[in-house]
Amino acid sequence: MKKDVHSETILLEILKEMQPQASTNVLRKMLTNQRITVDGQTIHRAKHIVNEGQTVEILPKPKISAEEEQEIHAKTHDLDILFEDDTLLVVNKPAGLLSVATDRLERNTLHNRCVEYCREGNRNGWCFIVHRLDKATSGVMVFAKSEIAKRDLQDQFAQQLVHRHYVTLVEGQTTSGQSDHYLIEDKNLRVYVAEKKTKNSKRAVTSWDVLAINEASTLLSVVIETGRRHQIRVAMAENGTPVVGDKTHGAITNLHGRICLHAVALEFLHPLTDDPVRFESEFNPAWR
Question: What is the pLDDT of residues 27-36, one digit of tens each?
């Protein structure tokens, strides 16, 4: 929209003539968003003097790409999205946030944030829970956008076809190793190693390699074959090198204000295409 000016006038007054239905705040926002030009030059000041013979133009609101729109929506719901298509939503979970609600029906969970994100622009949008990370753990999580995709992914997890890779900082020094335990979770949700296999115990297989080591701690790359609650934390405690910050399982240090455990990669077969896909969370946890 353009207007030729026939007498010296303040820019804001000209804009009011051009957009009589718009409030002053909206017109000022147009100036801030670089949508107003005088003779082709972008003007930001509402009190700018427009001279006789000059032309004021209101530029159309710029269109944003699908990627930019996704980023805006993600920020609105406080999400760090690593990947999204019509089947999957892969996000980076922050430490200290529940993956899903417990019996207390907490509202601020990663799952709830993802559901609200999927519903934006589509009231029937939804995402389904496939797996979990402990509240204290950060890193890659995948949600499914359909029941079919959910069942497919859950089957892959159950059949131990999903590659799960973590990085953790533990107290003390250790070497590469593996643990193969049976874990029990008591009524108070405490997880510990069973002395022998029972009907209530679940097998937990954990392997780790050393990435870096000093006198006080060791940085480990960890792969789990099974997915049990507190599996890595219990394995490290049983190894005599508890995860830094994990006082529940014997840690005595908490220099970084969190449990130092981060899910860095998740690899599986895409439910729609059956192609292998791998998603990674940048390896720069808070303790690095």
Answer: 998 898 889 9
CB atoms within 10 A of CB 247: 12
Report CA torsion sign: 156, 159, 163, 164: positive
Q: Name the fold adopted by 66-159.
A: Pseudouridine synthase (3.30.2350)
Q: Report the alpha-carbon angle 134-237-92, nearest 5.
A: 25
User: 39, 134, 155, 186: which one is catalytic?
Assistant: 134
Q: Residue 125 is encoded by which pair of tokens?
A: 């949008």
Q: What is the pLDDT, as a whole number, of residue 4?
A: 93
Q: Do domains 66-159 and 163-287 have the same CATH topology?
A: yes
Superfamily of domain 163-287 in CATH is Pseudouridine synthase (3.30.2350.10)
Residue predicted with more confidence, 42 or 122: 42
CA distance 8 to 65: 39
| Pick from 6, 3, 10: nearest CA to 50 | 10
pLDDT of residue 105: 79
Beta bridge partners of 58: 36
Architecture of domain 2-58: Roll (3.10)
132: Cβ–Cβ under 8 A, 6 or more apart, which residues? 99, 100, 141, 229
152 in catalytic set: no
The residue extents of the domains of the chain are 2-58, 66-159, 163-287
Q: Is the pLDDT of residue 191 over 70?
A: yes
Cα-to-chain-centroid distance, residue 156: 22
pLDDT tens sequence across 214-258: 999 999 999 998 888 889 999 999 999 999 999 999 999 998 888
